């Protein structure tokens, strides 16, 4: 098939988080004109990260990224370098690193390079699986330890007891009894346990939410500039 010179090209990317089982992956379609700065924002949204730490893209052995005070310096302007500039071919891959303390590494494969689908908005996430690990959990080893701890009987038994206490207080109130208050120490302790559990929950993958965030990014392409990553991470 011969394409007109003006036909937009779309890179079909598969993003895989290294050293995590079951595998955490996303399939995302991005325009060939996507800049390094845009790609960084797209990867953050697709995976579920919070853009709270430093990052770098390694393409053909060279580092690219968005500079933040106290962080890495990059030789190239991330708003000027575009994905198409690398002339990547189907089957090639590059790497995205995030949070240098935890050192999350993502392999990004070029699965296809195809013409844009008329009326489709890009970037577009069309598949994925696996929850995003919580920030600051210690990288792949720390995340594996966190999952083991969260599924241990020693952790689940008191959590179950806390949930039962909360349910009992709510049922009592619904039946006309006293309202649970901050003066109820047992009730507040149970809520604290649930809050702690939720704080370390992996971020579930929601393709619709990812695409909604992509659309918002398209309307406000510099929104990610408001983030101030921790220069130590």
Description:
The chain is elongated. It has helices at 36-47, 139-150, 153-174, 185-199, 207-219, and strands at residues 9-17, 24-31, 55-59, 62-64, 93-98, 104-115, 124-129. Helix 1 (36-47) packs antiparallel against helix 5 (207-219) and helix 3 (153-174) crosses helix 4. It has a seven-stranded antiparallel beta sheet with strand order 4-3-5-6-1-2-7, covered by helices on one side. The chain has 233 residues and is of the alpha+beta class. It has five helices and seven strands, in the order E-E-H-E-E-E-E-E-H-H-H-H. The model has no long low-confidence stretch (mean pLDDT 90). It folds into two domains: 9-133 and 203-226, MM3350-like (Structural Genomics Hypothetical 15.5 Kd Protein In mrcA-pckA Intergenic Region, Chain A), CATH 3.10.290.30; 143-199.
What's the number of extended β-strand segments?
A: 7
| Biggest beta-sheet profile | 7 strands, antiparallel
Distance between the termini: 47 Å
Strand order of the largest sheet: 4-3-5-6-1-2-7
CATH superfamily of the largest domain: MM3350-like
Number of alpha- plus pi-helical segments = 5
Determine the CATH topology of the largest domain: Structural Genomics Hypothetical 15.5 Kd Protein In mrcA-pckA Intergenic Region, Chain A
Radius of gyration: 22 Å
Helix fraction bin? 25-40%
Shape: elongated
Order of SSEs: EEHEEEEEHHHH
Which residues form runs of ≥5 with pLDDT under 50? none
* Overall number of domains: 2
Can you give the mean pLDDT? 90
The level 1 CATH classification of the largest domain is Alpha Beta
Organism: Herpetosiphon gulosus
InterPro entries: MM3350-like_sf (IPR024047), Plasmid_pRiA4b_Orf3-like (IPR012912)
Domain Plasmid pRiA4b Orf3-like: 10-164
Protein name: Plasmid pRiA4b Orf3-like domain-containing protein
């Amino acid at each position: 098939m011969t394409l007109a010179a003006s036909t937009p090209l779309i890179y079909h990317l598969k993003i895989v988080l290294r050293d995590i089982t079951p595998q955490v992956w996303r399939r995302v379609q991005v325009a060939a004109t996507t800049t390094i700065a845009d790609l960084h924002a797209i990867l953050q949204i697709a995976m579920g990260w919070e853009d709270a730490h430093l990052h770098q893209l390694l393409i053909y052995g060279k580092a690219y990224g968005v500079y933040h005070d106290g962080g890495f310096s990059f030789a190239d302007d991330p708003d000027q370098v575009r994905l198409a500039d690398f002339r990547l071919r189907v089957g090639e891959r590059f790497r995205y690193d995030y949070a240098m303390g935890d050192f999350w590494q993502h392999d990004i494969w070029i699965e296809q390079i195809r013409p844009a689908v008329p009326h489709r908005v890009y970037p577009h996430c069309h598949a994925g699986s696996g929850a995003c690990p919580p920030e600051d959990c210690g990288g792949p080893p720390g995340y594996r330890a966190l999952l083991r701890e969260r599924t241990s009987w020693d952790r689940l038994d008191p959590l179950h007891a806390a949930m039962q206490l909360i349910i009992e207080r709510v049922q009592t109130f619904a039946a006309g009894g006293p309202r649970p208050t901050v003066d109820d120490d047992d009730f507040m302790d149970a809520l604290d346990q649930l809050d702690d559990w939720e704080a370390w929950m992996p971020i579930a993958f929601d393709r619709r939410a990812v695409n909604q965030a992509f659309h918002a990014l398209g309307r406000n392409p510099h929104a990610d500039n408001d983030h101030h990553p921790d220069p130590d991470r």
